[in-house]
Design brief:
This protein has 112 residues and is mainly beta. Helices cover 0% and strands 58% of the residues.
Length: 112
């Protein structure tokens, strides 16, 4: 599959980690679903990259690690996460994350 056309992903068996590539010194993303009720976006983070603390009103956010390792901060608690782990950020809860190694994740945002 080439390009970023979301329609080409429908009706196919996908290996999500293959749909977004690592980029040196950067965070890359690819939105695979974009609907009024929510989105699904894939991200890749180079080592030592991350997202600073923020909130996501009015969405609950489900993060699943597809490859690698990261640290997640949620409402003052720190969690070590690795391939296969999932965490749910409640809407309006402050959260952040940082790459321990290169890592890829799927972010599912569901409108509250």
């Amino acid at each position: 599959m080439t390009g970023n056309n979301r329609d080409e992903l429908k009706g196919r068996v996908l290996h999500l980690a293959d749909l977004v590539e690592y980029q040196d010194g950067a965070v890359a993303s690819r939105m695979v679903v974009n609907k009024p009720v929510g989105t699904i976006t894939l991200f890749s983070f180079d080592e030592d990259e991350g997202l600073s603390e923020h909130t996501a009103p009015p969405y609950d956010a489900v993060v699943t690690i597809l490859d690698g390792e990261c640290e997640v901060w949620l409402s003052g608690e720190t969690y070590a996460m690795k391939t296969g782990d999932t965490i749910i950020f409640p809407a309006n809860a402050p959260h952040a994350l940082s790459a321990v190694t290169q890592f890829k994740m799927m972010l599912v945002m569901i409108r509250e």
